[in-house]
Amino acid sequence: MFWQPKNQFVFKLLALLLVGSLFIKSLIYLDDNGDTWIYHLPFAARLWGLVTPNEYILEYERELIYQGFPKLANFLQGFFWWIAGIEQPQAANLVSFFSLVGYCVFLRSYLKIPLYLSILGLLAVPLIHIAATACYVDLFCNVFVAILILMTYLLYVREDFLNWRNFILFSLAGAAAANTKYLTVPPIAIILVFVIGRVIFLYARRAWGDSQKIAIFILGLIISNSLIFATEIKNTIIYQNPFYPLKIQIAGVVLNHAIEPSEYMSPYLKSLFPAQRWLYSLLEIGAFDDRRPWHWTIAMDFIPLSEDSFGVGGYMAAYVVFNIILFFYLCRQKNHQAKIALAFFTVISLITAILPYSYQLRYYMYWIMVLIALNLYLASQLNNSSTKSSIVTPHNIGVVSTSAVIVFCILTKWNFTLPTHHSLPIYIGYSLDTKVFRQIEDGEEVCLVGFAPRTFLYNSKFNPTRHYSVKAEAALSPDYVEEKCGSRRIIENK
Predict the structure, then answer these.
(1) What one-character-per-residue DSSP string does 147-204 give?
(2) pLDDT band at residue 187 using 50, 70 and 90 as cut-offs
(3) First to last CA, the chain
């Protein structure tokens, strides 16, 4: 057995209550974060025909992003929304919630970590806890990157790990992550280098001299990589740029693009090295701002982009330090699993530290997810060995995780944990300006300027007694607005 403490019932009950509460919250809570309404829900609605381009057109740059960016998670959000009905966009939250549950099931199946222990360990991380009931796609894609990393780890730990079942799961996980967010593509590509090298070594030894098996294996690799990088392959064929519409330069050659990525970073943060920014963010140095309504938010936002604390922090520094110290302690074990874990996690950390926007921790949550999983796995190995520790036990790790969860809930006033209901009509009622509705005539085509992030709420599908067409646009220069709005009547947010 993994662990048999006398009071594990308490942990099981707490984990069950947390999951139950978050499940109900994800069903009834209308996510009011900015990106949810700027593009996640509009993308989901467009993909399933819930709100068509005849009824709502995104801002110019968002339309370009819709054409090129990977949208698998948005597709799944739209699926749940389509099942629930147009007045229940809350259903889109279930993509994040089920991805977290799926990760815990994976840890139970592959690393033998009890569900309740992984639930407590993961929900102690503020960004994971908050994202579990939100429409953001970061948790979804990071779950699958974490699965890729752990499967790669197991591939190096166990020689019998290589089989077609695991090969298919790895391919599907890679496809889910890479076809959801561009930022996951670099770490996935690096993971694949380690995987292919190990697989070739193991498979060549087994199938050496059997040309048919080798041919099937090579075909499997080609299909797997085509599935994983489907969006990038499509964009290369259509736009001659795998990351269209973003500006990409390869060997001095600038590829076809329509958008130059913006650096949402204060001058102070820009002056730091990427790894330094990442470490500061892990330790939450300068992360907190009294203008935020809660200690942590889904993007560490609610403050101007130019502030030094924007996007910094989100893992709970004390919990990060605890897990790092615990990891190095557990890696003192003289066994193959610990040695490989130390090497793997060191490489992962070095890579993550220099990735684009690494200091915005929500983009790379796989790092803390893998760290927690490895700690629980290595703790089980130590607990089952002859040199077991009386202090470092799964039970005590559970106590720390539970304490961190409670601290998070108290500091955020239980806002991200307890179910709260927001219906679409009520949300529209207090979020929008009724004067704008009165300015729009039935059958008219209008351009709403400067209403972000709530412009999508003005579409006529959410107002079933009305019939008109809305285009959203950013409040930039008058010439820009006039050009992008075209013949539509312009209504500006004064």
Answers:
(1) HHHHHHHHHHH-GGG-SHHHHHHHHHHHHHHHTT-GGGHHHHHHHHHHHHHHHHHHHH
(2) very high
(3) 64
3-state helix, strand, coil in the chain (%, to 5): 60, 5, 35
| Residues 6+ positions from 61 with CB-CB distance below 8 Å | 245, 258, 259, 474
Q: How far is CA 204 from CA 12, 196, 338, in A?
A: 45, 11, 26
pLDDT in tens, 93-146: 999 999 999 999 999 999 999 999 999 999 999 999 999 999 999 999 999 999
Element of type H or E holding 118: helix 115-123
Angle between helices 138-157 and 366-383 (to 10 degrees): 40
pLDDT in tens, 319-331: 999 999 999 999 9
Q: pLDDT tens digits for 437-460?
A: 889 999 999 999 999 999 999 999
- Is 273 exposed, middle or buried (CB count within 10 Å of its CB: 0-12, 13-18, 19+)? exposed
How would you class 164 by CB atoms within 10 Å of its CB: exposed for 0-12, middle for 13-18, buried for 19 or more? exposed
Q: What does the block give as tokens for 107?
A: 């840890």
Residue 237: CB atoms within 10 A of its CB come to 9
Establish how many alpha carbons lie within 13 A of residue 307's alpha carbon, considering only the half-sphere containing its beta carbon: 16
* 3-state SS, residue 1: coil
C-alpha 438, offset from chain centre: 39
398/404 Cα distance (integer angstroms)? 10
pTM of the model: 0.94
Tokens 């699926």 found at: 79
